[in-house]
Design a protein that fits this description.
Structural class: alpha/beta
Strand content: 5-15%
Radius of gyration: 35 Å
Number of helices: 20
Shape: elongated
Number of strands: 10
Order of helices and strands: HHHHHHHHHHHEEEHEEHEHHHHEHEEEHH
Amino acid sequence: MSDHDRAVPARSSLRRVVLLTRDQWPRLGWSALAGAIAVGSSVALLGTSGWLISRAAQHPPILLLTVAIVLVRLFGISRGVFRYVERLVSHDAALRALAGLRVRVYRRLEVLAPAGLPAFRSGDLLARLVGDVDALQDLYLRILAPVLVALLVGLGSAAAVGLLLPSAGVVLALALALAGVLAPALTVRLAGVAERRSADLRGELAAGTAELLGGMADLVAYDVADRVRNRLGELDAELSRTQARSALTAGVGDALVLAATGVAVLGALLVGIPAVRAGRLAGVDLAVVVLVPLAAFEAVAALPLAAQLVPRVRRSAQRVLAVVDAPDPVAQPVEPIPVPDPALPLVVRGLGVCWSPQGPLVLRDVDLELGEGIRVAVVGPSGSGKSTLAAALLRFVDPSTGDVLLGGVSTLRMDPDAVRRVVGLAAEDAHVFDSTIRANLRLAGPGSTEDQLQAALVRARLDEWVASLPDGLDTRVGAHGARLSGGQRQRLALARVFLADPAVLVLDEPGVGLDLLTADALVADALAATAGRTVLLITHRLAGLTGVDEILVLDHGRVVQRGTHAALLGADGYYRQTWQRERATDALARSDTATGR
């Protein structure tokens, strides 16, 4: 169980889910009423049929049986009709409620991304969004509805029998209470742990499966795929054992309800026969008193299953609410102000950032100014805080100290989405969707014309390659861009951000993961394509930085050097040492390429 899950109170989770879907209460009420009428029709059908058969055995005039005959037909037809209505309305209400919950969870994930998502495993998040939300349908269909129907039908049946024979009504009420309270309570006690564990096991199994499929190549390469697969097999086996225990518990609950039914019928006979002999009950009414309990227990038959599902549904509710209640990674202003026009300059003053309230500062006292057409490069070793700086500029994380200003106004006073429309990011791990090139581009501009798409491809140096493809822009790129080379994936991400056309363009490690020549060519093309634009280039490579206006060197979250390329080469420090090391490495790489090694 994650820390987020522990923060959600178990006992209040179901109540909160019901309150979150209060717009469906009228439909749920109508479905419960229809279900009560359907079960009540079954009770009335059996009771009326018993009276009709008993009275017909006395051979009265047929006219005395006409009303009973009509009622038998009425109850027989209404039972099916209202059962259909109950199923239709209850499932409609449940599906609407689940759709609303899923939208709420998805919108919350949008707010949490990207800084708040690492608290959850990706596969487990998928399980929460799909599996746990789907599990909540049992709350409406198999928990709330059966309880309401049992109350309505149980009270009505006991009252109807009590009108004929009060002592029989008391016996029926006690037997219904025994089946409706004791059996569910015992079921919860026996199945509680197993049902709660099943929700966690499904989440672990989903997360493990996603990681297995996503990392299959590495797992096979290091010969650990069998170990991971065996672990998933163990989880699956444990889930099967948990479900088997739940099924056994359900059988115990059904047995208790069946036993209570027998007790009710026997009790009705024990009080009904003396009442007939004493003249307190008509002989034909004895059939009603004895037969009504047989049908009335249909109303409580679903309660043990409902009780068995409560721990599982409550656990799923906790997991869903853990996402809904996850703290905002960035503060949302109560009354956000619009981004100033013009939005530039972008100014960073004394910026300090940590990724969690108790975590260490990963950026300290960073100052930066990006005016119109200014291009700044940020370099430094891995872990120096380069990507954290980009995250702070886009309000993926809020400053712990200092501030980020657009047009002289703090971005903390603006809607984060509005900030991201001004400050665009081409991330090192930009996701490429399993769709067409056109669809991937239009993420940044849904209404883009063909000319605009083509212009973005030209700037990213992808136009000739796309033109050579048989399907052009309609070429599918595969999952995670599997049909593209590393350079093509990065250029597609660049084209996408070019299409968005933000005022400030942040290029975060555009050449990461590529060979040196390809990486340098990509950076050079990106700088050429953004000539005259405001750019922040984050890179660990120093090649191609002669054309930027300023270079910041970060180390352990601090700016240790800053200046132009020429100025930094003239000073001793990280930049000159790295430049010399890169030149030696590049010379060796070119030598190896020339000799074919």
